[in-house]
Design brief:
With 181 residues, this protein is mostly helical. It contains seven helices and no strands. Helix 3 runs parallel beside helix 6.
Length: 181
Amino acid sequence: MNVERGEYKYQLLKLVHSGRTLHEAKALMKAVAVGLTGEYAKQRDIIDLLALEGTLHKITGTRAAKVEIFKLKMGPRKPLPAPVEEVLSSFVTPFRGKVPISWRRDKNLIRRGPPNRPKPGSSRGKIGKTRVRGVKKVLSDLQMMIKAIQELEAYDTKKRNKGDLNKFAKAIVMKATTNIN
């Protein structure tokens, strides 16, 4: 394990035990970013979340992208502005800052005195597996909605109200929680 990954895990554990994870958006973003790594989340869940995030990004993107809704395909956006875990955690949490985020330690996580040597494997058993629920259902519903819009576009040659798609995209709510024993 590299030093950077160990630092991320350390910050996750300290933030969870300090009780701040669910109260501050940046701390939650850090926790979710670590939870969405391949070590804790299923690869299929990560791919599904990327597809959902990419599709919604295309729908709510530029005007040209909205005009191209007829050709819209479900999938992740490319290129990603930051590492996959950070893009997905900013999508799932209320954090609306810049990505990639700064992993510099918060003031309450900075140790006073000489640094401790890292202990590989010390986080084993303390961080559970990430469970992603409802993504497949949302993806299939979104795909059916896009297909219906495409059929309406093909049927109706008049200009349609583009504001409806924005209302739909803003109505989707993402939520991340943590269970700590």
